[in-house]
Design a protein that fits this description.
The chain has 75 residues and is an all-alpha fold. The chain has a domain of 44 residues. Helix 1 packs antiparallel against helix 2. The longest helix is centred in the middle third of the chain and has 27 residues. It is elongated and about 45 Å long. The relative contact order is 0.10.
Length: 75
Amino acid sequence: MAGEGTKVGVRRWLQPDGTPVSCREKLKVLEENWAEAEAVLRDTFEDAVLMGVDPAALRRMLADLVAGLRGPGEG
């Protein structure tokens, strides 16, 4: 759910040149996507731990997943 996350302050969505995204509609979509991703990851984490997966190992797996993400045009 929106608003239930692990927010620490306000996220700054930066563009490749380092300037923040300022379009309100884009910011709204980005925050909604963040909340959805956070909810899915939280559910995945909780399920895996309840099924006996080591939490530290799962955190490493999730970090590897994120590190392997490529944006459009990045190959």
